[in-house]
Design brief:
globular, 8-stranded antiparallel β-sheet, 260 residues, alpha+beta
Amino acid sequence: MDHRPQAWGRPRDDVYGAYDASYMHSNGPNQHTQSPVVTGTSVVAMKFKDGVVMAADNLASYGSLARFTDVKRIRTFADTSIVGFGGDVSDMQYLDRHLTELSIDEAYQQSAHTLNARSLHKYLSKLLYHRRSKFDPLWNHLLVAGLDEEGKPFLAAADLLGTTFTSPSLATGFGSMLAQPIMRKYVPDEESVANVTQEQAVEVIRECMKVLFYRDARSLDSYSLAIVTKDGITLSENEKLEKQSWAFADRIKGYGTQTV
């Protein structure tokens, strides 16, 4: 037996011939990810008068297969901000490690200043744009929430192209079509945010997660819920949908509810 470490796990050359490694070497240009494999679906977030509430389910789908049911897609940063990840899970893990290193660096700085939510969003948008410019994008759609430098609620999004925008309510994936109409009834503009309490915002987000579970085949009834206020971050990663009702299902035929 050949005990050399480089030979472990493959047949001996002197018996079976030299190992052909040519398939590992491509003559073409370097290729990067063209489409994500394991992905997370919607992230929904909404401002209220004292902060921001955000939710994302705990499912990661392998293509069309609901494969991983305990993937947490909301991360905290420096006890001041939260980031919700939609899209590729491996790129989410890369960004999570990157943010952890950034948080440690910030903690070791001599000054007491840390990145607020607005600064963190700007940093992530520049990082996404940098990777896009290298033709190796991070296949994620991010929501960043927290408080800005004035202590006001902040909520903004950034996608894989580095495109950024902000709104009183935001959602990724199917949530942008199914959950946004629900949230916009309560916060259609920035002025209306002052009239929404934390309890109302949480209730609206829970309703959005229920609608997404009803209508999105890539969603789950287990989700994470985070609330950011001036008092800190409250993160619950094992919330369950309550008071589900599938009574409407027997009326659905074809592409919508019909009366037959």
